[in-house]
């Protein structure tokens, strides 16, 4: 994965009904560690990273790069959304395309926050790179993620086997300008 391309970062914070999407700050460090060390979050992502390693190696303000949004609820980070470029994706249908990823703390699951935040991030994306499709890869066993992908308008391109599991590759076609 590489960065999206020449985009101004961080953007002005994006406000939705309940959330704010913003660039990461030093105060998010503890939440990033919780996110990356959580076995529940990484059930379908190849397993968590050891907390001690994260404490040791994570920079003061992690995730400070174009396309990496902190999702903030009431002043505290509840998740991360990533829009990157799938430069070396193993499936030709996805290689080189913009790629959506999302990770939320388990206590924030089940409230529609991920859907609300991802829809706003995709709207931001449509504004800066109009007409570009977005891809998304998730394990077929990851039912929550598949439901979210469908809600966001991703449709199946193909399934494939990688990282010891069956994967789902979805595509969101660019919005067609209304007449
Ligand atoms: C994938 C993930 C982001 C989905 O989170 P989520 O909270 O289930 O997703 P949504 O924001 O779409 O919320 C949907 C749920 O909120 C409920 N909900 C409650 N209030 C709601 C509201 N006001 N609006 C919308 N939905 C609401 C929905 O009914 C739905 O519940 P259900 O799952 O019991 O049917 C989360 O499980 C996660 O972070 N997983 C670990 C990381 C991961 O696997 N990422 C995928 C690879 S990129």
Automatic annotation (TrEMBL):
SUPFAM superfamilies: Acyl-CoA N-acyltransferases (Nat)
Transmembrane segments: none
Region (Disordered): 46-65
EC number: 2.3.-.-
N-acetyltransferase domain residues: 19-176
Keywords annotated in UniProt: Acyltransferase, Transferase
PANTHER family cross-referenced by the UniProt entry: GNAT FAMILY, PUTATIVE (AFU_ORTHOLOGUE AFUA_3G00765)-RELATED-RELATED, N-ACETYLTRANSFERASE DOMAIN-CONTAINING PROTEIN
Protein name from the UniProt record: GNAT family N-acetyltransferase
Organism annotation: Streptomyces polygonati
Record lineage: Bacteria, Bacillati, Actinomycetota, Actinomycetes, Kitasatosporales
């Amino acid at each position: 994965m590489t960065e999206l391309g020449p985009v101004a970062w961080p953007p002005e914070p994006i406000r939705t009904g309940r959330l704010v999407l913003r660039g990461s700050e030093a105060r998010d460090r503890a939440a990033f560690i919780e996110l990356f060390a959580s076995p529940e979050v990484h059930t379908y992502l190849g397993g968590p990273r050891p907390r001690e390693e994260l404490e040791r190696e994570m920079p003061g303000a992690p995730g400070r790069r174009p396309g990496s949004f902190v999702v903030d609820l009431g002043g505290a980070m509840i998740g991360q959304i990533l829009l990157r470029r799938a430069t070396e994706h193993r499936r030709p249908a996805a290689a080189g395309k913009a790629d959506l990823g999302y990770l939320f703390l388990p206590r924030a699951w089940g409230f529609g926050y991920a859907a609300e935040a991802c829809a706003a991030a995709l709207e931001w994306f449509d504004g800066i790179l109009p007409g570009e499709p977005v891809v998304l890869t998730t394990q077929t066993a990851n039912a929550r993620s598949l439901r979210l992908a469908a809600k966001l308008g991703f449709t199946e391109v193909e399934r494939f086997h990688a990282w010891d599991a069956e994967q789902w590759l979805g595509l969101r076609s660019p919005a067609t300008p209304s007449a």
